[in-house]
Design a protein that fits this description.
Strands 1-2-4-3-5-6-7-8 form an 8-stranded mixed sheet, with helices on both faces. The two termini are 15 Å apart. 45% of the residues are buried. The protein has 10 helices and 8 strands. α9 links the parallel β7 (259-264) and β8. It folds into 2 domains: 9-140 and 242-313, Alpha/Beta hydrolase fold, catalytic domain (Rossmann fold, 3-Layer(aba) Sandwich), CATH 3.40.50; 143-240, no CATH class. The chain is 35% helix and 16% strand.
């Protein structure tokens, strides 16, 4: 992995709907362009990605999706409307950013929710994509959302019971993400705070495989907890604002675009089957399966090394 260099440029871009997205560029201003689509939804960009790209070779762009990170207005403010925060809005924002930076084509990188957004963007703008690198592959399908909000209960029955009990009884057999989203938009700050705690408690338990009261994680910050919970439930509660099989049905648009899909066999939140199905329908993509990895990129499970190797392949 490479040194985490500081950005050589950054700014705010007006993208319409009274929204401004924050972006930064690091590495070589004249280098090969690459852009990272961060996960969450709602996590904001992570400077750790700079370590996967040789700063002498790549012109790396990181950006915060609407309302996250340094983008404004923040979704962590309950008064901020989510009306203009959908997958199509984010796709359009990425394209406006590319044009603003005078980039003809760029490599797309990102995992989890970022991978869903990458695939949706590439399907619409294949001529603007040079290569794709995706760890922790997801496609935003209803069955994937149902799995992570309910199906995982078979592995975490104790945590799931607490998660399910966090919403009113009449909502417990329905769309849990939407039920939580209603609580997160309550006028009562205590209701919002508890819903953000309960939602993130479930999320972190399924990622780490156990219990954690957020100590030593970004979830310690109540502002981060609320931003993540509100954004994720907004997207998952609305099936990621995509038709159920949109990505799977349009993967032929990626023909000719080389890619690397990296997935952990022990990924509870995003089972390997999605990466497997995408690789079958996208012949130009290589699937790398890591037997000891889960959903997160770590040096210890080989995910970080696999990402760096995939990026190196496309120098």
């Amino acid at each position: 992995m490479y040194p985490q260099v500081e950005p050589y440029a950054q700014g705010m871009l007006e993208v319409g709907d009274d929204q401004q997205i924050h972006w930064e560029a690091s590495g070589n201003p004249n280098g090969k362009p690459a852009v990272v689509f961060h996960g969450g939804p709602g996590s904001g960009s992570n400077p750790r990605w700079r370590q996967d790209f040789d700063p002498s070779h790549w012109n790396l762009i990181l950006w915060d999706q609407r309302g996250t990170g340094k983008s404004t207005p923040p979704v962590s403010d309950p008064a901020t409307s989510m009306k203009h925060n959908t997958t199509q809005h984010l796709i359009n924002d990425a394209e406006k950013l590319r044009e603003h930076l005078n980039i003809e084509k760029w490599l797309l990188a990102g995992g989890s929710w970022g991978s869903t957004l990458i695939l949706a963007y590439a399907i619409q703008h294949p001529d603007r994509v040079s290569e794709i690198v995706i760890p922790a592959v997801t496609a935003g399908r209803p069955e994937e959302i149902e799995w992570i909000t309910r199906g995982l209960g078979m592995f975490f029955p104790d945590h799931f019971e607490a998660f399910e009990n966090g919403v009113p009884e009449e909502d417990r057999k329905g769309n849990l993400a939407l039920a939580y989203n209603r609580l997160l938009n309550s006028p009562d700050p205590q209701v919002r705070e508890k819903a953000a705690w309960d939602w993130n408690k479930w999320d972190l338990s399924t990622i780490t495989g156990g219990d954690n009261d957020f100590e030593g994680t970004p979830y310690e910050d109540p502002v981060v907890r609320y931003r993540l919970a509100r954004t994720v439930t907004h997207y998952w509660g609305n099936d990621c604002f995509l038709e159920p099989t949109y990505i799977m049905d349009n993967l032929d648009q990626l023909n000719g675009i080389p890619g690397v899909l990296i997935h952990g066999r022990n990924d509870f939140g995003g089972p390997l089957t999605t990466a497997w199905e995408i690789a079958k329908r996208w012949p130009d993509a290589e699937l790398v399966i890591l037997n000891d990895a889960g959903h997160q990129a770590k040096d210890s499970n080989g995910m970080s090394q696999a990402i760096t190797a995939a990026v190196e392949k496309f120098r």
